[in-house]
Specification:
Order of helices and strands: EEEHHEEEEEEH
Number of strands: 9
Helix content: 10-25%
Shape: globular
Radius of gyration: 15 Å
Length: about 150
């Protein structure tokens, strides 16, 4: 990841991509990140909005939840690969949330602030190393997510 100061190393050779995107190894996860032109709080709220998930996630075709904006303990179900599967948010703060899908720990989601740049931040999806083939899907998701946030939807 460039510029966010995570201390990780770019593992996918993103030299052919612009500086808004990147993939960094962070311990047992890969952090797929993309810069977003938006305030961190508003960007994080959009990331936690279950009604928006199908608009930006290539793998989520539908979402039903106990709450519109996920918090720790939120439950619901998502439609993936043609089937409805249950989810539970295992941890959440204003700028971060993690979940388990069908009882399996899944991706983490966070928004990072840039020091001195209140109108720009970085959205990150954390992918377990074992799920590395999912990285291109996360990149596509973050591109869609940034377009949604930057377009004011």
């Amino acid at each position: 990841m460039r510029g966010a100061g995570s201390g990780g190393r770019d593992v996918f050779g993103d030299s052919d991509r612009d500086d808004r995107t990147g993939v960094v190894r962070e311990g047992a996860t890969l952090a797929v990140g993309r810069d977003v032109d938006g305030r961190p709080e508003a960007t994080a709220k959009a990331l936690r909005d279950t009604r928006r998930w199908p608009k930006w996630s290539p793998s989520v075709r539908g979402a039903e939840s106990t709450e519109r904006y996920v918090e720790s303990g939120t439950t619901g179900r998502v439609r993936v690969a043609g089937a409805w599967v249950p989810f539970r948010v295992t941890a959440a703060t204003r700028l971060r949330w993690d979940w388990a899908v069908a009882g399996v720990p899944a991706t983490g989601h966070r928004v990072e602030r840039y020091s001195g740049e209140g109108g720009r931040c970085r959205a990150v999806i954390e992918v377990p190393l074992l799920a590395a083939p999912y990285v291109p899907v996360c990149r596509r998701a973050l591109d869609r997510f940034a377009a949604l946030v930057e377009g004011g939807e």
